[in-house]
Amino acid sequence: MTTGKPVRITDTCLRDAHQSLLATRMRTEHMLPIAEKLDRVGYHSLEAWGGATFDSCMRFLDEDPWERLRQLRKALPNTPIQMLLRGQNILGYRHYPDDIVERFVTLAKKNGVDIFRIFDALNDVRNMAWAMQVAKRVGGHVQATICYTISPVHSLDAFVETAKELAALGADSLCIKDMAGLLAPYPAYELVRRLKAEINLPIQLHTHYTSGMGTATYLKAIEAGADIVDTAISSVALGTSQPPTETLVYILQGSEHDTGLDLELLSEIAAYFARIRGEYSQFESGLPGVDVNVLMYQVPGGMLSNLVSQLRQQKAEDRYRDVLAEMPRVRADLGYPPLVTPTSQIVGTQATFNVLTGERYKVISEEVKSYVRGLYGRPPGPINPELKRLVLGDEEPIAVRPADLLEPGLDKARTEIGDLARSEEDVISYALFPSVAREFFQRRAKGFPAPINEAAVARVAGSAQAANGQLPISLWKLASRIGRGVER
Predict the structure, then answer these.
(1) Contact yes or no for 434/416 (Cβ under 8 A)
(2) Residue 17: which of 305, 210, 238, 178 has the closest Cα?
């Protein structure tokens, strides 16, 4: 091994890999047996919490997400645990009051999170600032994140300026989050080079293999100075997941960026996850290993699989291509938001409405109305004036940080859930996902009767939001709304 600058690795096998490939269904009981070997690898971190895992634990698996975090913390004493946090959205699909954000972050750190990867779907720094401040105060590592996308209103200059704002807010490191696999190798090189030249912080890169460019993109980013990259152990890599860990480790062996990780140990871990993956075959997305549609439509791979599923439920699978083609048009109307939770779901739902009703914006989703009103944050570009008129009339969108309009919610949540909550963590679970948490607590109070696993599987098809990329309004509701004449 030559002397130089070893690249560090974050493995996503405990979070994004199974969220992307297996609809976030991996159970804690399948994580813990391999934890000892994962802990010996020497990863920079393991992404093991956040994203859709919190919701899915309660909704589908009858697991307490906080207990999962505590068990993983105990089983991984030497490896930092990293989570994905949606800024003011926390882990949900709307903004939450500051007191709930503060308590969530505080409890996440107390229960085992070391690194908070904090992002906002619109790259609106206002929606990230409070979570960053709290995470910093409680001793967490704040990884402020830029959501990468391509559009007429996004540029390398704009990304660098956003990164400078985040650095000024006290970020400990920066992440480039390429959620759809759109970041090509040479733009990656230039973006990382600029960030390293202008901001004195470690740079981490996250991508998905959907477009087939992931490993090449990492290599160019590493050449430009990227410090850390996200990979997934090979048996849960590729497709809509991350590039494979072992491949990158082998490529870099003997170079100045040699990771120093043990390929034999990684091979043992890969064999374990290969066996475990078979337990979740019913949740496989079925999408091809490389899907070039992402380059044309910029739709994250996890959302593509859910779109197919919901169109199939409506006997409208033949409209899949029409909906895909409509998504870029809706995205342009909304000012080119990056397509990541929750904006990807907002755009996907509205595109589906437009196609299935036969008229654009005959039905406008409540989420689009809120977006146009500014309740999700500041759009990257101008909203289509006609759509703005349909939603707002003569009104103007809000100009303040959306959370500034929210009343404190923690005491209200505590009162509402009452004795069903056994801990402060339970109160937060309820505040984030009221109906899901209440039903989970009720099943827990009954001791999770034996048929619950079958019941959990049965709940999969009817759920509206828990799976990665799931549309926030089930398409059956669209048919219901049209039937009642509910429009605009």
Answers:
(1) yes
(2) 238
Q: How many CB atoms lie within 10 A of CB 245?
A: 29
DSSP string for residues in 79-122: S-EEEEE-GGGTTSSS---HHHHHHHHHHHHHHT--EEEE--TT
Asked whether the predicted pLDDT for residue 462 surpasses 60, the reply is no
Return d(Cα 122, Cα 119) in angstroms, integer.
9
pLDDT in tens, 312-346: 778 888 998 899 899 999 999 999 999 988 898 89
Q: Please report, rounded to a whole number, the percentage of residues in the chain having pLDDT higher than 70.
A: 89
DSSP output for 205-273: EEE-STTS-HHHHHHHHHHHT--EEEEB-GGG-STTSPPBHHHHHHHHTTSTT-----HHHHHHHHHHH
- How many Cα atoms within 13 Å fall on the side-chain side of residue 335? 20
Place of tokens 């130089």: 4
Distance between CA atoms of residues 135 and 405, nearest Å: 22
Look-up of token digits 């707002």: 392
Cα–Cα distance between 260 and 40 in angstroms, integer? 12
